[in-house]
Amino acid sequence: MAPQREWLEHDFYKDLGVASGASSEEIKKAYRKLARELHPDANPGDAAAEERFKRVSEAHSVLADPEKRKEYDETRAMFAGGRFRGGGNGFPGGFGAGNTTYTSTPGADFNIGDLFGNGGGATTDAGGGFGDLFDGLFNRGGGGRTSTTANRPRRGNDLETETTLTFADAAQGTTVPLRVTSPSPCTTCHGSGAKPGTSPRVCPSCNGSGFVSRNQGAFGFSEPCQDCQGTGSRIDDPCTDCDGSGVKVRARTINVRIPAGVEDGQRIRLAGQGEAGRRGAPSGDLYVVVHVTADKVFTRSGHDLKIQLPVSFSELVLGATVSVPTLDGSVGVKIPANTTDGRTLRVRGRGVPKRSGGAGDLLVTVKVAVPPTLDDEAVEAMRRYADAERASGFDPRAGWGR
């Protein structure tokens, strides 16, 4: 994805309050903290907080994506740090573009021939020269000359929210309502930015390209069209509700279907439910981070459910059928006679549902529960049992130790 023009103007690291070498976890932590502080729900009517919330969301959408972050870093480094610098080196006054001067720098990893795209001399054609460099950076497809290809409005940023589920809901799947406050398509103009009954028109200054070309000396330059701010379209009668942006911050409720088997920390992507794009551009995506509360009985191992079943010594020795809970009711589990403490019994198909069909298993581990007290009759019975056990020659520590 080609870098955004805005990348040259915004310091996303500064927006999030992190260093340029911050880890992904540090970026996520900083974003979540700021998003909570600046969220419109927490700052009703505060336009400054709302604007800051948008900036923080945009910064996170770029820096949280490894590919976007790499491209962002490279773009800003090229323009700010060493591949283009002010100075001479054979080009008095440099080559100007607006108020910025770019010159070749001795020792830099940059071939001046590459500037012109052909390894040779300069060209006075508006489609060649330095304009082609900007074409690549700003995702334009056809050189610096005025193009009939429209400069598409910018896609909305991705957003992230969180929800907490019970263990059973996460395992079986559920539908939860999420309250989201974010920039959304204006309901008055349906995202176009134009007053109802009117439509945006192609900018006559740039023929819808979003850029205009000019020559300065021997070089051709492309720059964003000032008449349409680089959008490629003009709105003569803006929508009064969104001031022509096509976007307005509003609260909405989304019913989210959580699939069966979701795990703690998993992210669910809802396509097109993120921040609205400007002037009808596609919306970003919404990512829902799921948190799952611990259960008093069940734990998970993939699609298998695990429980520890308290049993008596007599049930292990004599065998028994015991009622065991599952996600949807209970099931009888047969404990064979002479079962050892800690043995795991498998009940097939009573675990977590699988997307491919079927379900995992229920793993039941038996654990002897020792009674805290016994009456005289029970104590006497245990003594008789102990005598019979010794008489049979049973030694629980035979072969154990040294």
Fold topology:
Layout: H1 12-16, H2 24-38, H3 47-63, H4 66-80, E1 95-97, E2 100-102, H5 112-115, H6 130-137, E3 159-165, H7 167-172, E4 174-185, E5 201-202, E6 211-216, E7 219-224, E8 233-234, E9 247-258, E10 267-270, E11 286-292, E12 299-301, E13 304-311, H8 313-318, E14 320-326, E15 329-335, E16 344-347, E17 362-368, H9 376-391
Parallel strand pairs: 3-11, 13-17
Antiparallel strand pairs: 1-2, 4-9, 5-8, 6-7, 10-11, 12-13, 14-15, 16-17
Helix pairs in contact: 2-3
Describe the structure.
The protein is of the alpha+beta class and 402 residues long. Among the domains are: 112 residues, HSP40/DNAj peptide-binding domain (Sandwich); 91 residues, HSP40/DNAj peptide-binding domain. Helix content is 23%, strand content 25%. It is built from 9 helices and 17 strands. The chain has a 4-stranded mixed beta sheet. Strands 3-11-10 form a 3-stranded mixed beta sheet. Strands 1-2 form a two-stranded antiparallel ribbon. β1 and β2 form a beta hairpin. α2 runs antiparallel to α3. The longest helix has 17 residues. The radius of gyration is 34 Å and the shape is elongated. It starts with 11 loop residues before the first helix and ends in an 11-residue tail after the last helix. About 18% of the residues have low confidence.
Structure summary:
This protein is α+β, with helices and mostly antiparallel strands.
